């Protein structure tokens, strides 16, 4: 497959002459130093002469990425997304006191510090076993021995999760001597949460923290179990867009499919969120040119350059990517990965740019600051207010974050080998399924998931969070 008419490489849909499926082959001779073109854009340059028909991979291609750049505001008209007849204009969700929509009504236990993470997990497991009510504990290792912005980042992330609409009730579990004091969290959460649905427990202040925790969970259950689903408009959905373990098919099948889905949902007034800032490097101007105004453009410039400075401040090159799994799947440079990654954002205008831990404010396509790490980025999407994360993958992964995490495979082989991981197979696009039909199918899946159907990660009991740390440890 030649993706764009300007490309000087093609993608093999099946293995041929020792070149694996998903990898690149030169369409013509490429001179040393000449740009390799895929998706109509440079993905790096040839490190030596490459003959026509030769395998093109990390052994003969190198990134063009360097440090921070100066950008010019050059707005381009966004394509009008094509309309798609919707299977339903509503989903069945929970309307919260602050006007947000929840798609789950679980009880969450949020530890303030890693010291009580095991206690949180024990409480969740025992309470669910005895009472039968879905109860999840989200363990992490932070909340103490942190300073400054690093500590503030952890605190903000936990506050965002405590106020998440997918939780019917939240037990905030502290130890007592940690930096991340319950009293400070209470102040930050004031007027942001329904006080009837949040309980606080400081383990050092009670005689039996386990029994006290079970008692508080019972109070939350009594409130949450009265909640009922109701018809809510699709405009209340907030969808996180994420990819991990990408391969050479990611930018051909699953990612552009999510782009079409994103455009459809944005047209309906919903919100979608694109993150993984390092995986915008090399494709950032495609997003900058779609910013709805100049202020949003400059926020995007800061997003990109600040993240590059983060790399450089640690003495690392900005192109330190892709992973071994990416390379095995056919991705050779970060630019190539990025050009496939940003396709999840479709063609809609970029309406806002969010800091890590910042809640969503505007409907439409948003950009969110977070690294490419799968669990950190997925947690950040949830903390911004996303009720679902759509996760495309070419290599496969079982994990799920604190919100339902739909896995979309980029190829048929993965879907066949790991049906207990994969919720939707975008590899069907390689075997003749029309784009409109595939878009309709995944939209149908999203609506049913939002209405209560479990994802594979939920069925498997995989629920995790990870917090982005950038600072000293005391």
Relative strand content: 15-25%
Distance between the termini: 53 Å
Percentage of helical residues?
Answer: 25-40%
Q: What shape does the CA trace take?
A: globular
Mean pLDDT: 95
Written account of the structure:
There is one protein chain. Helix 1 crosses helix 4. The protein has a seven-stranded parallel β-sheet with strand order 16-17-15-14-18-19-20, sandwiched between helices. The chain is globular, with a radius of gyration of 23 Å. It contains 13 helices and 20 strands. It folds into three domains: 9-62, Archaeosine Trna-guanine Transglycosylase, Chain: A, domain 4 (Roll); 106-224, Rossmann fold (3-Layer(aba) Sandwich); 232-460. It is an alpha/beta fold and 474 residues long. It has helices at 117-131, 148-162, 182-189, 209-224, 254-267, 284-288, 294-313, 324-328, 334-341, 374-383, 412-417, 435-450, 456-460; strands at residues 9-11, 24-26, 35-38, 41-46, 55-56, 61-62, 90-95, 101-102, 106-111, 135-137, 167-174, 198-202, 230-233, 238-243, 271-274, 350-354, 364-368, 388-393, 405-409, 424-425.
Describe the structure concisely.
The chain is α/β, with parallel strands linked by helices.
Blueprint (SSEs and pairs):
Elements: E1 9-11, E2 24-26, E3 35-38, E4 41-46, E5 55-56, E6 61-62, E7 90-95, E8 101-102, E9 106-111, H1 117-131, E10 135-137, H2 148-162, E11 167-174, H3 182-189, E12 198-202, H4 209-224, E13 230-233, E14 238-243, H5 254-267, E15 271-274, H6 284-288, H7 294-313, H8 324-328, H9 334-341, E16 350-354, E17 364-368, H10 374-383, E18 388-393, E19 405-409, H11 412-417, E20 424-425, H12 435-450, H13 456-460
Helix pairs in contact: 1-4, 5-12
